[in-house]
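Late entry, written up from scratch paper. The run itself happened at the end of the previous shift, but nothing got recorded in the book at the time, so transcribing now.
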Amino acid sequence: MRTRSGKLILNSLYSLVGWIAPILFGLFATPFVLKHLGTESYGVYIVILGFVGYSFAFNLARSVAKYVAEHRSSGDVEKINSAITSAFWLNCSIGIVGAIVVGLSSRWVVVDVLRISPSYQEAAIFALIVGGISIPFTLAGQVFQSVLQGVHGFGVLSAVTNFNSLLINGGNVALAALGFGVDALLLWTLTAAAIIAVVSYIASARLAPDIGLKLRASTDMVRPVMGYGASLFVYQLCGGILLLFERALVMRKFGGEVASYYFVPMTLAIYFHGFVVSLLAAAFPAMNELLTDGNRLALLYRKSVKAVVCLAVPFLLTVLFGGRIFLSLWIDEDFAAQAYWLFVIHAATFGIMALMVAPWQLVETYNRPSVNAWVTFFSSLFAILLMLFTADRWSSDGVAISRLAGVALSLPVIIYAGHRLLEVRGGGEWLRTGLRLGPAAIALAGTEYLIFSNVAPGWPTLIFGTIAGVLVYLAMLWLTKFISPDEKDVIFKMLRINRSAA
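Output as recorded:
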């Protein structure tokens, strides 16, 4: 696959491998760690982990992926190195400030904001301090991972991602089995973050030795990186505030046990969003390379959105019809009874967020991340205000529904990206696409409903019902010509099947 489209497909497959293995590690580790720590203790752990992950997640490294891809074709190494160096020092500065702020506020956060029960407070304070120290290491590593993305090193990036997941989940399982608590798990997270930062630097230096972090680099890219990063900063800040507020609200009002019921299925839904991000990760540098070719850029954008829609439908329907069976088998029936509807709501939320990935990328490609920043600001504000109203009335379900409503407000970005930036007026095309997708969705829903409702629950039933539903879904997509002739050609090439022989 030496063509541009072949390289894009191959990079997407590498990205998917970098997503699948961590998910498998996580699916194995989560129930094991949860049962060894206990439901309440695991709820404290996942809330603390969320605070660490989102308190200072102001990652400017995405600008590196953009500028590396944009300037690499012209051979302007000096600009690329300047962008990488600027982003690295900015990320490190933000990370160090974040570590200090998290450390100084740890007792206040644990005691007054989260209101964690006294028996867990000291361990949670120590865990939060340790987790804060991991922030600069994480942000530094993301700069070099963005270099790998910008030079299409998705195979190497996939290996780094898998190694990171193996380190964290393997360490968590070992520590939980040995009887350690939340503080030890966060200490291991810090160790893994430092290791991955070093590995990411070595990997990027070996794959692209001509570019990277330099002690002496021109400062002409500092302003573009900061300007581009400012909007990224704003929407990451808004998204982070929403996540922190959500975790604090659930923990304060409902306790650690309900936090587990809320955030474990949320993590599963985030896995799907991560799957879509991985699938389209290779599209972002490709979009930047096609900035001067509007027709091909529009084609790539339409194919990206279509792929995500095609994937979101079976995910949402399978969660709706098979989610309770999965939770009961994965953890236990008690947990499934409490978490199932939260799983459905979170699936809808992150399904919509997955639909936003390609438009988000397109807006950033055209150097208009401020649009994403404003959208995130208003949707997050709406969700937070709604959470305050619904939490007392509908408990944790109300909080989840509020997040869903806030995310739904961002859907107009899809129209903006296609109509304003690419000047695509293909309303009829999207209508035909929806009409062709409908019968396939109905067939999938009917198949899974019949199997899951009439066959005794168990892993064989869940696996067979899911596979049968997806196969029926794909067959209907083929019959209704949702899959276009050029997409069929790509599928046959990927499978190395001669079309006439097939």
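The two ends are 20 Å apart (CA to CA).
(Scratch paper discarded after transcription.)
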